[in-house]
Amino acid sequence: MKLLTPNVKMADVIHSNYLLIPVVNRFGIPLGFGENTIRTVCTEHGIDIDFFLSIINAFSNENYFPEKKMQTFNVLMIVEYLKKTHKYYREVQIPIIEKHLKVFLQGASSRNKSLQLLKKFFLVYKKELLTHLKYEETITFPYIEEVYRLYNSQQKNRKQKSNLNYSMKMYEAEHDEVDDKLYDLKNILIKYISGNFDEVTCNTIIFELFRLEKDIMDHARIETNILLPLVTEMEKSLNLKKV
After folding, report:
1. pLDDT tens string 201-239
2. For the range 173-182, what are the long-range contacts, defined as Cβ-Cβ under 8 Å and sequence gap of 24 or more?
3. How far apart are the C-alpha atoms of 190 and 98, rounded to whole Å?
4. Which string of b and e fits 194-217 if b means at least 16 CB within 10 Å?
5. Under a CB-based contact definition with an 8 Å cutoff, are residues 48 and 1 in contact?
6. pLDDT surpasses 60 at 27
7. Is-contact 185 126, C-beta < 8 A?
8. By the 8 A CB rule, do 141 and 82 touch?
């Protein structure tokens, strides 16, 4: 797939990959682009064009991930995008799956053990995902914002030092992967479900699980390959105490 460029029409971005709709929305861009290009739309909404293109191209092309380019972006801009992604998981994607799952289970026999296992797995996964998102929003992101503030202050005052009760080393150790549980959820439906059930709703749930998994994988790549090394370098420059 060809990389999207500033002169591509925004409508064609969606036609090229409809899964980009929620990604575009995270930038605060509503539908109704008309014939406007990516450059025009980003300019109208005050969005960094290079950052926008890096995100949508990385999302659409698994082999495209401009680490060097993305490491030049403002850390706060990356954090803001990640926060909006969290909001999408919590307020849109998880509720969509939950809604379909509820309908699916209501129409199935309560004696179907595979379906009861599915419900249990989903509830465990939901709890762990929401816990992980809350941890990043209340601990990791505020820490990164504080490091960024200190780092920029240090450019004016080289004598400034500070110790914070956290570090990206801790973040890296606690940054759990969620792929395994999503894989288990999909497998229950794809491999092990039996008895009478609504196949259309089942297929919808599987599709939404795949969509969430893809989004989370791209989200994790940004955190691990971009955010982590960027903030680690700031920590080194500040000579922060390692927790």
Report:
1. 999 999 999 999 989 988 888 888 888 888 888 888 888
2. 174/135, 175/220, 175/223, 175/224, 176/128, 176/132, 177/220, 178/125, 178/128, 178/129, 178/132, 178/216, 179/213, 179/216, 179/217, 181/121, 181/124, 181/125, 181/128, 182/125, 182/209, 182/212, 182/213, 182/216
3. 18
4. eeebbeebbebbbebbeebbebbe
5. no
6. yes
7. no
8. yes
Sign of CA dihedral 8, 10, 12, 18: positive
What's the residue count for the chain?
Answer: 243
DSSP-derived secondary structure letter, 167 = -
Residues 6 or more apart in contact with residue 203 via CB below 8 angstroms: none
Place of tokens 């990516």: 38
Element (H, E) at 57: helix 49-60
Tokens of 192: 């092990």
* CA–centroid distance for 170 within its chain: 20
Tell me the C-alpha distance between 91 and 147, whole Å.
Answer: 29
Q: Are 72 and 39 in contact (CB under 8 A)?
A: no
pLDDT at residue 66 is higher than 70: yes
Cβ neighbours of residue 228 closer than 8 Å, sequence gap 6 or more: 168, 171, 172
Question: Residue 132 and residue 148: Cα distance in Å, rounded?
Answer: 22
Helix and strand numbers (H, E) in the chain are: 13, 0
